[in-house]
Amino acid sequence: GQNIDQPTEMTATEGAIVQINCTYQTSGFNGLFWYQQHAGEAPTFLSYNVLDGLEEKGRFSSFLSRSKGYSYLLLKELQMKDSASYLCAVLESNYQLIWGAGTKLIIKP
Amino acid sequence: DVKVTQSSRYLVKRTGEKVFLECVQDMDHENMFWYRQDPGLGLRLIYFSYDVKMKEKGDIPEGYSVSREKKERFSLILESASTNQTSMYLCASHRGSSYEQYFGPGTRLTVT
User: Fold this and answer.
1) What is residue A6's predicted lDDT score, i.e. its pLDDT?
2) pLDDT digits (tens, 9 = 90+) for B24-39
3) Beta carbons within 8 Å of B107's beta carbon, 6+ residues apart
4) How near does any CA of chain B get to the CA of A41, in Å?
5) C-beta atoms surrounding B55 within 10 Å
6) Which of A104, B36, B57, B63 could form a disulfide with A9 if both were Cys (CB 3.0 to 4.6 A apart)?
């Protein structure tokens, strides 16, 4: 069956580094997305990984291991504005997106 | 700048009412989607459309219908609203060759 797992909530300190994990079991795989969603707002695109490895984009990096069904989002030099939910989504073989429930990240001063 | 707009940010309706949620995108995207988002659950796909007048059921289509008469507009219809349809409704779109979805701001619907 289809399943995407992420931690429900994480807390980190301003200026620190945090890693948000996502594991998945889906019907085929055509890539994995990370989105950021601030409270009461629309999700916005952060990254897309289709090949194994690490992709870096400024303070944010995303890693994928297809053989392990695993991804993580790494946020460096955390800022208060990074407080948000982070959604992991897998593009299945039928090109439909399956979404995780999201990880709420709380940043403390 | 990419833009997806939804007709209302907040909506309160009574049980049994017919509800229309509208979504408009200005990016000439072929693909449009309606999701609902509930606490503790991932986004769940209600309906999607790959072209004008075309619609496909998602994972939870019961109690909903859709209309896509023009490429830029995708409407979600609750024929007879029920309290279990109280939720955040998100519209999204993407162009055919890219699967990055662009989302509207959402409509928080409360059915009393």
Assistant:
1) 96
2) 999 999 999 999 999 8
3) B6, B7, B8, B9, B10, B11, B21, B88, B89
4) 6
5) 18
6) A104
